[in-house]
Amino acid sequence: MTSTAAAIALQDHAALWSAGDIRASDVVKAACDALVAGLDTPGLRILAACTRAEADYDVHHLLPTALAELGLAFCPVDSEAGQEAAARALARRMLAGELTPRQFTFRIHQRHGHQLPLTERLAELDDEYDILDHGDRTLDQVDAEVTAEARRLAAHPTVPAASTASPG
């Protein structure tokens, strides 16, 4: 894994953890992967050193520092930026094959409804899945449009170039 990929993965894990989609121990594993990939800061080392038992208690205060040292953003999930970061992380997971297009749209629609402008089309596509038997579109057509939307979301730059440096 490249340091840029590791930085993106760490930031995605932060967004998904903040949204309640993954465990704190998953964030610690992403921090370990980032160290192995060549990212190295004092805060990242401390975060990566957490045990599973410590993760649930310590990630909430260690993660923002580790991300800041790497030039990465930590957005609270209750902010629009946090919601968008979690949606982009889910899009990358779908593109990696961890979610089906249907699962992806369902999770987006369940979490944001039709309220988040960035994901409005995905919520509409989730509705289309529900009426496939009564409409003129096929499952493959809807899946293809969901995949295109996921690519659009995932293409948004989330990691500044400076974050891939190893300052410490």
Question: How would you summarize the topology of this molecule?
Answer:
Layout: H1 3-18, H2 24-36, H3 42-48, H4 52-69, H5 80-95, H6 101-112, H7 120-130, H8 139-154
Helix pairs in contact: 1-2, 1-5, 2-3, 2-4, 3-4, 5-6, 5-8, 6-7, 6-8, 7-8
Structure description:
- It is a single chain.
- The chain contains eight helices and no strands.
- Helix 1 crosses helix 5, helix 6 crosses helix 7 and helix 7 runs antiparallel to helix 8.
- The two termini are 19 Å apart.
Output the keywords:
single chain; mainly alpha; 2 domains; 8 helices
Strand content: under 5%
Distance between the termini: 19 Å
Number of helices: 8
Number of structurally distinct domains: 2
How would you briefly describe this protein structure?
With 168 residues, the protein is mainly alpha-helical. It contains 8 helices and no strands.
